[in-house]
## 1
Amino acid sequence: GLSQYSSDPRTEWDLSAYSTRDQVLEAMRNLRYKGGNTFTGLALTHVLEKNLKPDAGARLGAEKLVILLTDGKSQDDANLAAQTLKNLGIDIFAIGVKNADEAELKQVASEPLELTVYNVLDFPLLSSLIGRLTRVLCTRIKEKSNKENAGSTVKDIPVNTGPQLSPTDLKISAVTSKSMHLTWSPPLRPPKKYRIVYYPSKGGTPKEVVLDGAVSSLRLSNLTSHTEYLVSVFPIYDTAVGDGLRGVTSTLPLSSPRSLRVSELSHNSMRLSWKAAQGATQYLVLCSAAPDGAED
């Protein structure tokens, strides 16, 4: 299975989509690169929430491996999401290219790091990793399978978290040109933390807030006026991620000055007056001569 991510993760194909090597290689050749931001934490949550479930082709008896390929430092908390996967027995291999943060790769990856962390200077050099990475992955699967057969416990990834682990009823209120207020109903089992991600629907830098699991409301501020925002609320547990809540709303436009009046006219001056615009800290006044008149 493969997912791409920037600010919004996108599943390219599920684990059950292809059954032969040639089909996978053909899908790779047709893949379109997704540019944008680097929200690695959100991407890892997406993989657990969407890609490692039975209805996406994940087999309960199979070992779970995630290979993270990134060329930049994460703009959100990748470590928290990675720890959730690792607590479930999912192995993470981290591969950095160009500007990837090696310290972050080591935080995200599973132990032992000398087998799970790789870093190359440019994309063509990824080919040099194929042989070693293939051997390491196959050996890792065999080792884990042998442990399982010897009787060690394996944690199942929750198939359907439902109300037990997932918040409900997201409400967005008190919307202004610069802010909005979020509230939601917590799940039956309170999470360790919430991750709230919000960004303009037409593009822009996503932002993230991490809250304690006992809190179920948040005021978002310093927003852009007259802009549609996508909002997601993810509950994070030690060994699971509940289904995310999602909402969309638009901030209000900035208020305008009203009732423009002109007075005290002379041969080279005039006085302007208007009713103030709420929240304005300055005004820009543009004066233009009539067509064919003097310069502005």
Note: The first helix runs from residue 21 to 29.
## 2
Amino acid sequence: QDNSFEQFIINYCNEKLQQIFIELTLKEEQEEYIREGIEWTHIEYFNNAIICDLIENNQTGILAMLDEECLRPGTVTDDTFLEKLNQVCATHQHFESRMSKCSRFLNDTSLPHSCFRIQHYAGKVMYQVEGFVDKNNDLLYRDLSQAMWKASHSLIKALFPEGNPAKINLKRPPTAGSQFKASVATLMKNLQTKNPNYIRCIKPNEKKAAHVFSEALVCHQIRYLGLLENVRVRRAGYAFRQAYEPCLERYKMLCKQTWPHWRGPARAGVEVLFSELRIPEEEFSFGRSKIFIRNPRTLFKLEDLRKQRLEDLATLIGKIYRGWKCRTRFLLMKRCQIVIASWYRRYA
């Protein structure tokens, strides 16, 4: 019920994870169709980049203003921080405050004076501003670090390397918010280099009971997780895509013209292959560098045909080997018979 600085940075991390989910599933997929020259009607979806910018913008973001309050001289309180938010974020559509100069929030009696509210992608969350400044400072005083570094226990000494007199830094220690922001940025950079798979967990009910589904709760989670937009993109788009070269290499044994070797361009080989298999034209599209297959059943059909063809090829190889082995044995026996017969006629 009471959300403070800890919940705020956790929700910030959730916003960034949702943003990379949007980037890698909805935005990237639709942009790929355009890059590949596939006919496509853009599907609208909510991009939470505006919420991330509200929190992490280097000049007007909430974290930046919190750091500014923590570092500026003079009397600094949670109220002065909230006042600064009210001035800078007053007109932001995802920020709400009772003290905001924006008149549309002045009549909102459900919002206390010492709180602000952010409309996250998953819904509105109200934060108690009390303690934000102190928790963000998170100062470990230098004399305490130096005392810990002088401890005789090696583990304690290793935990406080900043207490080493040779490494004393007169700069103010970084705030908790800036450290968390840097950690999130490193995480996002790492995820961008991967090819992640997503598992979305849906909470069926609030009571943690088995076999009980609350329709309203489930629908709410499906909406704010962006699953509806994702399903629409998937249904309107293509279930499978692959570059021409590996596609031809995998399925070339299904067509006599492409097996065992295709001498022309890979795309031309795939076109001949799909034409020979008589796959309906509405089931696939040719991009600039990839083949796009609309329905999974078409891919399953190709895999079944490939499996059957591999079995046929294995049978053919076995048949040829057994024939070669029997013929070799027969020729050996024939030569032996000729030798035996010639020697027999010589002495007969």
Note: The longest strand covers residues 115-120.
## 3
Amino acid sequence: MSLKSTILGFPRMGSDRQLKKLVEAFWAGKATEQELADGAKALRAEHWALQASHGLSEVPVGDFSYYDHVLDTAFAVGIIPARYQQLDAAGTQAYFAMARGLQDKAIGVDVPSLEMKKWFDTNYHYMVPEIADGQTFALGSTKIVDEFNEARALGYAARPVVLGPVSLLALSKAAKGAASKPLDHLSALLPVYVELLGRLAAAGAEWVQVDEPVLALDLDAAVYQPLFARAYGALAGVAGLKLLLTSYFDRLGDNLAWTAALPVHGIHLDLVRGAADLDAAATAIPSDKVISAGLINGRNIWKADLAKQLAVLHKLVDARRGAAAVWVSSSCSLLHSPHSLRPEAGHLDDETLGWLSF
């Protein structure tokens, strides 16, 4: 059985925390912005090579971040609160000020960071975007397109990854004094997503992974079903592009039926934490849609029971009438996993090492 194999995202820090050291050197004035960019580019190339060497059919791109992928998305679509707009929005000054604040008497700036919040039930935290009344959106960064081109230039089959518009707004908060709610701004935001996807299609992307992790929450269908229908009705209009709608950290549950009906080309299922969805999903998701089976736990350190997961995979393939309609993947991004076992070799016994899979 030959299936497409992939992951939803890769740890960006590096096997020896290279990114942390690089960013901190930049903050301390010991590395230039160009050195930061060059170091990050080299790290991305190293990570893509590692993924390809392990036989992945394609590598995710756009999952790399200097600080936080939610912040990256907000920054890219122009959600930059007024207090940061005096800074260099074209470079990293405004970006890092949103991430960690900026106090600089020499330029008369004293601004706090955005609020930080727990990323679902993980140990990761994200910066909470702030949506103002009359919020305007504009594509201010082509980071994801640039990284897709980087990967393609190095010879890798690549799949761009972007945080979806509904989750971006649902994870945001209203700016101080705003009367509107973040989700009220979906219609204004969607043209920017359409523009971004259009640029990815023009660059040669076949599939784009659109992460909508809020689908794993207990949602009010009367509120969210129309929002998702509006969003994906718009995004589906980008010619020549296939959308993989991705959720993780739990089952879709009551959200499954209406999610399955959205105009996308594939749906990812977290079949580690959401294994209870398996039978219902195999029936509910139309046969012309790919199912991306998240069978390998993206947030734990133990080796998978491959015999058990292969049995699930065979069941899905049989239900979908062929391997082409099923991909095998991680349950979520590997962002939450340690990078390498090599540094542990001198500290753990062989039996324990044999149980682990970083």
Note: The CA atoms of residues 101 and 112 lie 4 Å apart.
## 4
Amino acid sequence: KLTSLPLQPVITPELVQGRVHLKCSYSPHSLEPPVQFRVLWSRLSSPGQRQQIHQETTSLPFSHLEMDGANLRLGDTVFCTVAAFRRGSPEQQSLPEDSKGFYAGIKFLPESLEIAEDGKEHVLTILSTVPIACPGQDNSCKIALQLSTEDLGKSSQVPGPPDITLSACQVDLLPDSCSGSSCAAAMVTVTAVTDFVQDGNRVSRVRAQPVAPRDLLWRDYTPSDVKVTVQDLPTGNCYSFTDPHIITFDGWRYDSHKVGTFLLCGSESRVFQVHIRQWDCGGHRSATACNCGVAAQ
């Protein structure tokens, strides 16, 4: 019976003669031929609304549709709807089945980040759900993405400098075999800026813009950005003052009366040190040292 037929349509991307196509595959193995399939392609035009792109009738267990940059563009969420019927009896068809929506374009994983001002690096993966084509004969088989950050601040505040920093300003998406939802991927690390300012939790965003792509499909395409929420943390402080009285990050207090150059503080996780220089300022009356110089790396 056609009414309870499990077609299970699935959309996958592939390159056909160097051009990006979407392939809608379905499972007709439970049917005896001759069977025809009516395939309807549509794209999400607005939330909850679909726009029909293409319709065809075929006896094949799949249907192709090219991403031509006009009817079907990067940034579209695409569906295919399939129904089956016996040849010569198009009015007696199975219930149409929808595929899951396939998003064609750039994705960020995770789709949003919540990090803290603790100096830790967080990996952000940038992937393309469609294969990277090679429009020329030279070394042009890549999509270069220019990365930028922007502070969105709070509704009551004027945006300021971004609260995040990236490990790279540009990444390249290189051709790879499609696996899962990824046909090409690159990684960048995101770190919250320790700004020594109690400015509350702020929201920044990371944007990726294709740089002068040769492939027409990638022109005029701006991927959706990813929002990064930065949790504001109180900044630790340490002190060395006068003849030097020292207060450590955890509040311990002591005095140092030695003359020389010393390591005041250093990080075990990154290249960061503060050196202090102390000289004799007590003369013959007392052995007292005072701060006379500081150097930070």
Note: The chain has a mean pLDDT of 88.
